[in-house]
Amino acid sequence: MMTTPAEGAKADREVQRVNREHRVPETFGAPVPAHQQSNPVVLDRESGAWIDLRTFLGDSDYGDVVAKRMALRLSLAEGVARYVCPRCAEPMTLASVPVRVREPTRFYFKHRYETGECSGTSGLGERAICALKFNHQKEGWEHKRFKERLLESLAADPAFSDTKAEARFVDAGGQRWRQPDVQTNVGGQRIAFEAQLSTTFIHVIAGRMKFYAQNDAALVWLFRDLNINDFRQAEDDIFYANNRNVFRLTDETVALTKSESRFALECVWLEPVPDAGHVRDIERRSVVYFSELQFDVAASGAPRAFYFNYDAERAKAVLHAAEIDLRQRFEAHWLESASDQTAWLLLRKELHERGIEVPEWSSLDGFQQLLDMLYSVKHWRVIGSRHRSMVEKAHYLHDRRKGFLLLFHHALKAFGRVDAFKQEDVGKNRFSVKVEAYRAKLRNDPIYAFDGRYVDLAMLLFPEIPTKAFR
């Protein structure tokens, strides 16, 4: 049947009207999902999580979305309603805006039977949404399985007692209370366990932290997943407040707990590693035991449970990073521009601020000979002298700087140069002949004693050499 021009124009106007009513927005010319509805999210009854339309659709193309739409309808026909309205708990489906283009952008969430009685989450305030999410999370299959794992683990470890699930945790005054997922007692310390399985407003997280800190209770957060890069904001809020440690329970940790009679958890934490001038974090992961955890309250007021003390180690790493930076700059100066007195005076000033004194000019009092010797061993090339080989430098030390000989031997070992030295030490004038002569005297004869000058600097610049070598 042919369509007249008037009918075609009427159809186009109807499409435009529907598009205006459903307010399908466009961003930079490309349409985005039609989520400007009264039902921007659905509740996943299995996990207890709220899922928005963009997440639900993912990277699916039009055909994939149609398949999802059909799968929802088939499940409902079988009496299975996994995705429901967070407000009224009625089943939800994917509806389509009647536009001609075949794009995922035409779909949106809709009640299976739209009566107009439920407006979804539209108009709900923050507290109402938070209450709904909290209740849904506790009703989800994931949350129930979480509690089962936790209760099984606590029951298998005799250190825990008076364990309760979904019971009120009343404050000392008997006026205020919270209801943690599970609470227990170990060694006289009350412990509250909370599951972080879905997005939570920060004021809710902070409220729980404050309550338990004020009541001298330890708070342990348990997550669904430990993929730090995929954490949502609520998970980041907890993770960073908890000394950058986070835990979860798995079937494997429950099995280990039962076999060892010790409560085991999977832990992920960040470890600060010093680098030149900065600190970088490395992700670490391990199964740990509850008895290995530390508990405190941070300066921010957040109660913390952690296996690795990130804050304490970061303070050390910051100092170490500054040392690495100074060490590298000093070495670069010594090897490339030791004649630059301006640069030397700046380094000397920085060392003085660290309590390390060095001469005003780098060539005085055996100072240059000491550093030349150690840098020569480290880089395995003669530095700062006209000696033709490291063996010739060793002979020089024996004849002119006997107090450096023991340190020279330690440096050869520390930098793995012993074999290389032996390969060079050939011919009539072998250094090993002298070594045999003075070996017995090396530690006891005062003539071979290191005078200890500049030892603090040497220890800073050459951490590979053991401390005992400088004593």
Produce the secondary structure layout.
Elements: H1 5-22, E1 26-27, E2 30-31, E3 41-44, E4 49-52, H2 53-57, H3 62-77, E5 83-84, E6 92-96, E7 107-111, H4 126-139, H5 141-156, E8 160-165, E9 169-170, E10 177-178, E11 182-186, E12 189-196, H6 202-214, E13 218-223, H7 233-241, E14 245-248, H8 251-260, E15 264-275, E16 278-289, E17 294-297, E18 303-306, H9 310-336, H10 341-353, H11 367-379, H12 390-400, H13 405-414, H14 418-424, H15 431-438, H16 455-461
Parallel strand pairs: 12-13
Antiparallel strand pairs: 1-2, 3-4, 3-5, 6-7, 8-11, 9-10, 11-12, 14-15, 15-16, 17-18
Helix pairs in contact: 5-8
Number of continuous helical runs: 16
CATH hierarchy class name of the largest domain: Alpha Beta
Number of strands: 18
Which architecture of the largest domain does the CATH hierarchy give at level 2?
3-Layer(aba) Sandwich
Could you tell me how far the N terminus lies from the C terminus, measured between alpha carbons in angstroms?
Answer: 103 Å
What CATH calls the topology of the largest domain is Trna Endonuclease, Chain: A, domain 1
